[in-house]
Please model this.
Amino acid sequence: MLIHQLPLDAAFATLRSVPAGLTHAEAAARWHEFGPNRIEPLAPTPLAVRFLRQFTHLFAILLWVAALLALIANRWMPGQGMATLAAAIVAVIVINGAFSFWQEYRAEETMSALQRLLPHQVRTLRNGATVVLASEDVVPGDVIFLTAGDDVPADCRLVEGFGVRVSNATVTGEARPVSRDAHPSADPDLLRSRNVLLAGTSVTSGEAKALVFATGMHTAFGRIAHLTQTTIDPPSPLQKEIAALSRVLAALAITIGLVVFVIGRFIGLSTSVSVVFAIGIIVANVPEGLLPTVTLAMALAARRMARRNTLVRHLPSVETLGCASVICTDKTGTLTQNRMEIQSLYADGVFVDPHAAETAAFAASHRHLLECAACCHDLKYAGEGGHSQWIGDPMELALARMARTALGDTAGFVRIDEIPFESERKRLVTLHRVAGEPVAFVKGAPEAVLSRANRIDVDGGAVALRLEQREAFGEAATVMADRGLRVLALAYRALPANYVLADAEQDLVVTGLVGFEDPPRPEVPAAVHRCREAGIKIVMATGDHPHTAVAVAREIGLVQGTAPTLLTGDDISRMSDTQLQLALDAPEIVCARVTAEQKLRIVKAFQRKRHIVAVTGDGVNDAPALRAADIGIAMGISGTDVAREASDLVLLDDNFASIVNAVEEGRTVFENIRKFLTYILTSNVPELVPYLAFAFARVPLALTVIQILAVDLGTDMVPALGLGAEAPDTRVMQRPPRTRHDRLLTAGLLVRAYLFLGAFQAVAAMAAFFFVLAGSGWHRGQEVSVTDVLYRQATTACLTAIVLMQVVNVHLCRSRRTSIVSRPFFGNSLITAGIVAEVGLILAINYTAVGNAVFGTAAIGYEAWLVVVPFAVAMLVLDEARKAFVRRRERKTLEGRGPASVEEIAATRP
Model:
């Protein structure tokens, strides 16, 4: 039999212990055998390995190859700036890798948080004497003492218990404190056993003597820690997209480079020249600035989210939340406030507003009810100085607050005796001396109190309890329970001076019923509504009672139908993975009484259904699911260290509504990455065309490698970051989340960047180049030295044209469909700063000695600048016409099919 099912003497025997505790010698031997009572972390990945990972992902490898090719080209044809380009690319890789590593390094390890959660010292019996030990020194077979406010250091079997109630929220997710006693349990589930105290939980009331039977990694706490340790963080959707983008760009660049090499050899160019130009084309098609731009854009988004009370621990999670299609949320402390509040009050045959109970008028006619609420408890006054406060059962705290508000000081009620709460009796009796006379106050389950009552309190006096009144009390208790409330009955009895303690709970005068709930956070219903609008499915997964879970779900709008799908932990444990996946197709789902392993199964089932899953939680029991989810979201205030360290995002205000703000930011990040990807890829075309023209049209090279570098890592950088900081579109939360099939790099994006915007820029750049050459009498076929001032002026005009066209392009890229005039021209300060920076940089390149020397440029006249204007205007007008056409087509499509509901949108997901 399991230890919680055994009689106490058998439990001691199985652990070879005695009620007086272990001897010091035996405890030392067991410590060496079982090890210290702590969570043992897995061997951490060495810092050097974690650092090197930042330089070996696919896009970084692509850049390494580009740098190597540049060095090879420099060896074949030195003096073309290839060595400088290689050095710049390596610098980009190193800076970006160091920045990403620093972001990762700042996160503390999950297991150190697990260890901090355990108590540091515990009172233990050794050789029959009480000693204070470090929690790490507790071993199986030890007998320990616990009282209200203590954390439990190991899994224990109760030996003696007086009014013991424990909060298991951090391990099981159950919000309400539960009673514990020393009797053998028939329940085979250790987590539900009434005589077991679990490591990592806390005692809210009473006093306990307990026998330790599991320590360290062998506890339920340790098993959850093992799940967290062995769960691998999946790559984020954005990381997958960047990898796919790297493959596409690499294939595109290499293909074009090979084609150019073959054609070059075919038309008679030497091998060395063909290789150099092929490499130049490959490098020109690799957007060196993309990696730092993506990283810095996510960092900017993380800063914006921090201002909205969301702390980002892993940068890729910024975008991941934006494509979440399912949020699997805990209830206690996430949707609710994690405190008990009086929600309903029944007295004198009617339901009373709980706030009315705090008034003088209510106190005048229901004084006995309030006196019972003020006195019948096991609360303790703890703390020092200005930090002193009552601690104990949250329901007792709520009753005490209500009573003290109405009655004021109750110091005159002197406690003289008690009958402790026991699970069989389901009631607590405290005896007090009131105005010199003994009075018994009773609080407990309605059936346990009403069965002992024969009178009812009416206007401060006791009258006989009639049958219909007793039935009305039972019906009122049922109504409260159906609402998911925890119901207690209050009663009293005036005793004679020579009372017998056993008589204190006989012939009671019932005063009323009180219903408690863990109230939902006030902002949650609106947040749930916004998630529905955004096409995000919300599933509650809690360790709490099913009735409570459904009631809270209905109160916050998570459940709107009459028959939601309710899955309990027992239901899930009996289901195969296939059955669970099918059950999760239901539109409204509430999961109750679920364990950490079952939450993990739910998350993985949704992922197998190709959903992108976000999980919220605050307890130790949530950590494995937080780790396995596509994105884990922990509570920053009420959450445990374990949950926070296993998560990707932390809500600093514990506000579920902050998730909606974070979703909005995440969706915006993906769209913004597409915007600056369009912007960056556009400039690849005017960088590529000069090489094609040189190779096949036998004209001078219009743009040098070092000038390409000036665009990719100079003038384009800040405006691209500005696109990454664009404000969310007003309709971003009215659209469904993107699916796993939505690509970052689409055919439409490539067509717009390469064949439309890029084509305009290439024509403008070559026009400026030939304008300068032709103005000096150059004709086709005429050789031009690379050191000639005329040639340097012509390449400067080409470079300037690209930069000026990008100034216009950055505004065109702010939206794929809305007009440039629909957004404030100076509404994005970073774009404005970027334009100023790139204009300033091109002026420095053109008109300073240092700029001329580094980039091989020469000063040009204003006429060369003006050549670009017609092309910029044409690009602007035609792109505005394209956007108008897109908007008109979308409007007609919507008018033809009518509005789609969220359910219809969700049904179309793959």
About this structure: Confidence is low (pLDDT under 50) at residues 107-115, 897-910. The chain has four domains: 3-34+112-230, 317-338+521-654, 344-513, 672-734+749-910. The chain is about 50% helix and 15% strand.
